[in-house]
Amino acid sequence: MILTITGGETMRIAICDDEILQLELLKHYVEKWAKEEEINCTIELFKSAESFHFQWLEDSSYDIILLDIQMAELSGMELAKLIREKMNIYKLYLLLPYQII
């Protein structure tokens, strides 16, 4: 994946998951990736699709949005559909649940 950030710009990343441990783990991975790639970023965490959707309606200037597909009220799939209806986004990435047995 190639991301172009010019002139010391800061990438804005949202992570939305209703499980706190997953939020923190994803944040750690994103911070590690950003450090390795020497990318300045701000990471915003959301505990529900509704809270993210409310924020996104106010300011949709996110560069990357990571959505958990299975959340309590509004799912990541439903939220992705709402985002696509409002913006011309050609790629959306959803996080699928994975359990190690």
H/E order of the elements? Answer: EHEHEHE
Shape field? globular
Q: Structural class, judged by helices and strands?
A: alpha/beta
The CATH class assignment is Alpha Beta
The CATH topology corresponds to Rossmann fold
The major β-sheet equals: 4 strands, parallel
Rounded mean pLDDT is 80
> What's the architecture, going by CATH?
3-Layer(aba) Sandwich
Q: If strands are numbered along the chain, what order do they take across the biggest sheet?
A: 2-1-3-4
From the N-terminal CA to the C-terminal CA, the straight-line distance is 30 Å
Count of individual beta strands: 4
Q: Return residue spans where pLDDT drops below 50 for at least 5 consecutive residues.
A: none
The DSSP helix count reads 3
Give the domain tally: 1
In brief, what are we looking at here?
By secondary structure, the protein is an alpha/beta fold. The chain contains 3 helices and 4 strands, in the order E-H-E-H-E-H-E. Helices cover 38% and strands 20% of the residues.
Describe how the helices and strands are arranged.
Blueprint: E1 11-16, H1 20-36, E2 41-46, H2 49-58, E3 64-68, H3 76-86, E4 93-95
Parallel strand pairs: 1-2, 1-3, 3-4
Report on the architecture of this protein.
The protein is α/β, with parallel strands linked by helices. The chain has 3 helices and 4 strands. The chain has a 4-stranded parallel sheet, with helices on both faces. The N and C termini lie far apart (about 30 Å). About 15% of the residues are buried.
